[in-house]
DNA sequence: GTAGGTGGTTTCCTACAGGAAAGTACTTCC
DNA sequence: GGAAGTACTTTCCTGTAGGAAACCACCTAC
């Protein structure tokens, strides 16, 4: 009947784990980081711009992912009153708070590449 | 025939995007961050410990994810010569370099929760 | 011998992610 | 009138992620 002490059910841990799950579920899927990264670099872009920028994505995926991101207030969608109607997607102030996370991720990925190619 | 300038095909961008894809593919799936987070907190843990710590995971998933992480040198697997044979999983030095990334992610998730509950 | 603990693997199943291609609607250019 | 561009949506299909449950092997305590 002796049960090992559970190390991980302290409140601080539960909150951290929950927070990571939240973040991951908002950014789940193959394309969200690409879209956000592109919008952070490019500022304002149209649907077709994104379709061309992001290598390999299809219109269905792009449409769905943009809706997801807009729903979570990470990007904004603005219909422009131009001759052939255009839509501009841009990162929101809130979405921009992801920049350090994206930078960390890019930095780690670059270092990983180097260590695999160099040390292995 | 006029084509809009592509903003995203500068070498630095391509490398960043590739790096993000690399990182995401190593950490893909529902459980990798949970496992890494738990091992960073708990130091050395056995299979059954992890099964109990990580709420909801099944033995198949845990086994598979541990193999993935070990293959990428993010965790170590040590068979202990104890009475009933036990295995210890621990984070490697290399896996520990993910700590800032995991911290960023947890931090962002916590802030997201607060902003949704508070401001909305 | 049998119940219970360790550390898994294997089988089977389902749901969702994601891709290709076509369709919709509206506009402008020629 | 028709091609071409913008911005999507819809349909159809496939592959894989991931869960439940059973099974294997080995050891110890009773």
UniProtKB/TrEMBL annotation, chains A, B:
<keyword id="KW-0805">Transcription regulation</keyword>
<protein>
    <submittedName>
        <fullName>Transcriptional regulator, HxlR family</fullName>
    </submittedName>
</protein>
<dbReference type="Pfam" id="PF01638">
    <property type="entry name" value="HxlR"/>
</dbReference>
<dbReference type="InterPro" id="IPR036388">
    <property type="entry name" value="WH-like_DNA-bd_sf"/>
</dbReference>
<feature type="domain" description="HTH hxlR-type">
    <location>
        <begin position="13"/>
        <end position="117"/>
    </location>
</feature>
<dbReference type="InterPro" id="IPR002577">
    <property type="entry name" value="HTH_HxlR"/>
</dbReference>
<dbReference type="InterPro" id="IPR036390">
    <property type="entry name" value="WH_DNA-bd_sf"/>
</dbReference>
<keyword id="KW-0804">Transcription</keyword>
<dbReference type="GO" id="GO:0003677">
    <property type="term" value="F:DNA binding"/>
</dbReference>
<keyword id="KW-0238">DNA-binding</keyword>
């Amino acid at each position: 009947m002796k049960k090992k002490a559970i190390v991980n059910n302290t409140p601080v841990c539960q909150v951290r784990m929950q927070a990571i799950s939240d973040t991951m579920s908002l950014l789940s899927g193959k394309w969200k980081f690409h879209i956000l990264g592109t919008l952070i670099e490019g500022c304002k872009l149209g649907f077709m711009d994104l379709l061309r920028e992001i290598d390999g994505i299809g219109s269905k995926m792009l449409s769905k992912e943009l809706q997801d991101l807009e729903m979570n207030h990470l990007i904004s969608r603005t219909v422009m009153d131009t001759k052939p109607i255009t839509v501009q997607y841009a990162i929101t102030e809130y979405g921009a708070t992801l920049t350090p996370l994206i930078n960390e991720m890019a930095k780690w990925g670059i270092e990983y590449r180097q260590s695999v190619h160099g040390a292995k």
